[in-house]
User: Fold these one by one.
Assistant:
Number 1:
Amino acid sequence: MNAVAKPDTFVEAPAAETNAGAKTKRKQLLFGLAGGVAAILAGGFAYQTLVASRLVTTNDAYVGADVAQVTPLVGGPIAQVLVQDTQQVKRGDVLVRLDDTDARLALARAEADLAATERRVRGIVATDSELKSQIAARTADQAQAAARVASARADLEKARIDLGRRQALAGSGSVSGDELTAAQTAFNTASANLKAAEAAQALAVANRASADSAHQANNVLIQDADLDQNPQVLAARAARDQARVDLERTIIRAPIDGVVSRRQVQVGQRVPAGYTLMWVVPVQQAYVDANFKEGQLAKVRPGQPVSLDADLYGGKVTYHGHVVGFSGGTGAAFAIVPAQNATGNWIKVVQRLPVRIALDPQELAAHPLRVGLSMNVDVDVSK
């Protein structure tokens, strides 16, 4: 019996030691797990305190640019289209040519009108000298008519005296009837001559007044202005210049550097002024509009540095920029159909405010972006 009991005691001792070791390992694992959790929590707290609290992040951000809409300033048929979609162009490059036949004819007509107007004004200037001469002639006629009136009055006075003398002597028979009749006739003739002279004088005065009026009317057209400053000439030159500008506008050039997009014009198509031919996108002047939640913007200020990456490059390229400013309103406020919150079933929705971010031009040149691409944005609000 004793020999049998000893082996049993020998077997139970190692089992107890094994259980104790397992408990120890379990405690070590629990302590290790607790330490790991504590380390994770501490790391998370440290990250939140030292890193995350300094950054405001959003992935609701997209590339934008101030695109240029290419439209003709004059209408006409399309003669040439010299660019295609995706083509890079420089400012001043010819994009489209309109048929300039009508514009050339309009310019020729305007130049002819200008030449005719200048000749007409020169004629008015020459007429001014002629009218001055006519005034001088009418002045002389008026003086001559006045002299004739004075002479006729003198003749009438002499005839009146002669008639009176003969009438006084007629009763005594000293004057014959023929002499009295001749004196009466001379008086009547002198009276008629005076009336004729006075009528001629009135006509001379009227002619002088007419010449003065004609000169004044002509002088209004050229007063205080030479040929180059004459209103009629200026108007004709403005019409000529407008026709020349319209001719130049038949050649449509790129307004900015960029990439041609949405070209929607073909040769032979007749387009009116203002018709959208294409768009030019200045990809080297792209920016980012980041739509942050309203609760994220308390510490965001213009000028703060920003780090960005594009889905296009998969996070391999990091862009740098800075905050430019904030939009004047949320996207909902500028929607075509804005939200109507004054209803009984109102539910608050967190709004987003667009924040404009400028990008580094050198980084853009090295890694080009396109309008509408998605971006991930981190704003450092600690600076």
Number 2:
Amino acid sequence: MRRILILPFLVTAFSFAALAQDAAKKIDEFIANEMARQKIPGVSLAVVKDGKPLIVKGYGFANLEHQVPVKPETIFQSGSVGKQFTATAIMMLVEEGKISLDEKISKYLGEVPETWKDITIRHLLSHTGGMTDYPQDFDFRRDYTEDEVLKKAKEVPVAFKPGEKWAYSNLGYVTLGIIISKVTGKFYGDFLQERIFKPLGMTTARIINEADIIPNRAAGYRLVKGEPKNHEWVSPTMNTTADGSLYLTAVDMIRWDEGLANGKLLKKTSFDEMWTPIKLNDGKTHPYGFGWALRKVNGHPVVEHGGAWQGFKAHIARFPENKLTVIVFANLIQANQGKLANGVAAIIDPELKQRPIADPDPAFTARTKELLLAVLNGKADMAKFTPEVQKLLAQQQDRLAAFVKTMGSIQSFNLMERSEDTDGVRYRYQIEYTGMSLFLAMALNKEGKISSFALQPE
């Protein structure tokens, strides 16, 4: 097997004076070890502490064929990290009175399916509209117009009534981009350029365009039987949708983080709305805002989002109480970018190292692990789940199972959180694979049925 040489080509754009030398060394060792273990060709890392860039470094190669090292100016693809920019654009239009969060999307789109008639802008921003993902037979190698993409989206059955549940929806954000175009008369990417990128000095941020000559563009890779391969081709129009089709650098993201910290683009009330857990119809909340996932690490709030697309992974994690932001890009689709970001955060601030809790029922945890494996293999006893969860699992099972099976066997399965309320018991497990880790969020209702069962990225 050909061995990939991953050398720590380090390009430092800012001083390390503020960072203890032993911490800097630990970060370098951590990144290098993870790159070797996960077989990641290249990583770009940026850390902002107390409002100032602390680290901006490149590791490994942006292009394996030409042995081009990663540097701070290296351009990666955003994946779903791009959703926060789409959400910000929508909130700008909300502040201007051109869009209303609780207005039905039919006002902006015209005729919609009956199942869409109660979906609002708020539902799309928070993944609570009932839309799901691209159908399995969707042709990503075909060029579509916005109207054709919208027509395809309308043909996908909704999973639930608006506001009833939370289910991640790329199609919802694709639709938001189309709404931006219809409201402003501009392609949503042009709107981002004029209203976000230029004002913040994000000079290399732009919509993906593989035809243009773009300096410092990284290549995206995938592992096939342990060997790196160039990623498969996607049509030009499918690389311009608002669910996450941006070119970004670590330097761009530092300026984005500064804009968020200083409230340069939106009013505080708008940011508060984006970073507040969404409330469902039954009054419960889900830890997602508008284009941002929300959680806590040992009591410290985290506002974050990951991305994956066409051989690239991206992650931004903001720890507001700790005045810390970690930004990671990697050019391997199997990379665990969340583990890289969270690992760096824990080195800089040990309070941010998430630890398993004392497990009150190890036997139950073991059964949960076996249940997950049974679900992925299509052999689970569906009677254990509520009808709503049965429906969701049936819709996503094939795609989910195919993805998880590429990661190999489970290395560890640990209980990270457990809470009880009047509705039942909620659990959060960390699942470690050789190349990455995931979380399983599960809830049991008062009748002992599983009322929530969802895999989430780290």
Number 3:
Amino acid sequence: MRRPLAERPAPTMTRRAFLVGLCLLSALGLAVRVGYLVLYEREEAPTGDAAFYHRTANLLAEGKGYIDPFRHDDGFTGSFERTAPDGTVETVEVRYEPGIEQPTASHPPVWPYLLSLASRLGLDSPNAHRMVGVLLGTLGVFLIGLAGRELFGDRVGLVSAGIASVYGFLWLNDAALMSEPVATVMVGLTTIVAARWWRAPGWTGALLLGVLAGIGGLVRSELLAYGPLVVAGALLLGARPRRLLARDLGLTVGVALLVLAPWLVRNLTAFEEPILLSPTGTLMAQTNCDATYYGPKIGYWELECGQPEPVGPNGELLDESQRDRIRREAATTYAQEHVGRLVTVAAPLRVLRMFNVYDAVQTARFDIYVESRDFRLSIFALGEYYVVAAGAVAGAVVAHRRRLPLFVVLLWPALVAGVALAGFGNNRYRVTAEASLIWLASLALVAVWGHLWAQKRSTDSAATESTAISTS
């Protein structure tokens, strides 16, 4: 920001031509996603997070509120240890019937709420909910194209939409009943606003960044951080009046908190222990254990490390916040006892795994069991990823030389790296960085094409001039 930024790239085609091209590429993206849904996901029963979203949406549509769908639908079976009068320790099993209504905050609420709107219209099956993700993923392709245009010009926008339409690590998410399609939409929208604010800071842009940050925080944590960090980055790096940038930072943070306030108040009043956006104990327990520090899942997560489900001293049910505290304390103790291994091995490999630098094929195999992905399609997507990532490196160099708004693009991968450090690395959690890679790779492609075209024109011009001289 210390050097003056280039202005928004000048149009190279009419708005109509750009929009027609963008719509055609988005239609291609829709076809790819529907094809994947029909051929690969249609018969799959939702499990894990997908089951949570699907069931929670239907419970919301029934007026049950935001409650734990697994305990409501399946009941709970667990155990606890009890000391007998003779001093022996016995394991006592406990069983609670379905119908338990306990509040949950284990996943942010926007995606279940959007699915619940479909459920209220009678579209409450897993495939109907998957189709909502497909439509949102298609909108994400459209917005990636618009954001590419805002960042780097018309041609880059169309190339970005073209790549996004067939990019595996986007469409594999969109039909999987996960929240990633919403994240892709939010990344596109937020980046458009951020690029405009970065070139011309002002209170309206800061207000929009705050609104999008607040909504984003109800989808994924890094979406909450992005807007305030864009403004904070300009404040630290920019040459513009600091007083105005400080005002915009305060506005962005304040508006984001206002948007989040209902969810924060609900969480602080619904549970026995404090929870803000979401509980963290389960994730910490599953990522801070022998399997993820020393075993085959270094840098990943292990379900068994979060087991068994905590219960009270006599087998009574604990609410989500109480279970979270128990797991968080156990995970913190483990991390403190193995801090050397965490700092030198586990944490770095989390980041490397997130960006498929460490054991990418193994990560793709893990995706089979956790997210029901087809291994061959994951490997195909992995090949696409490496090509796009290599292009993104070249695109970052081009953007820097042309003084384009690189900070607002690279902030997304930086935030994803932070997510990996705090948790673990896998392909699905990288979704908020995928658009950045696509934009930069598209910029590199357009730059190479422009260079080759200029060389051809120069050669043709020289040949024409030589012919004219010879004739005369």
